[in-house]
Amino acid sequence: MTNPSPSETHTCHVERCETIVPPKLFMCKRHWFMVPPGLRARIWDAYVPGQEERKDPTAAYLRVAREAIEAVAERERHEQRPETD
Question: In whole angstroms, what is the distance from residue 56 CA to residue 62 CA?
Fold first, then answer.
């Protein structure tokens, strides 16, 4: 098995995450489990097998994917806020 070229490398879809994941995975494990369970289920419902190979995700998949990315970003912003008394 050969290593993928840099142009074929697939990373987690969360902004600034450079974790390499298999093309059929949307996010790295850490970020995936930051997505609320109901939203994770919606991603799987919108997923069409092979879309990662054909590069043709549906509009529904892209919408729910954006929601998931935003959910992770919001959670990360919340975790980075300093606590106030």
Answer: 10
* Cα–Cα distance, 41 to 84 (Å, whole number): 35
What's the token pair of residue 4?
A: 């993928």
Query: Domain locations in the chain?
Result: 6-80
- Residue tagged 């919108």 (tokens): 46
pLDDT beneath 70: ranges in the chain = 1-7, 81-85
> pTM here?
0.82
* Residue pair 69/13 in contact by the 8 Å Cβ criterion: yes
DSSP bridge partners of 20: 11
Cα(41)–Cα(51) distance, integer angstroms? 17
Q: Among candidates 47, 54, 56, which has minimal Cα distance to 27?
A: 47
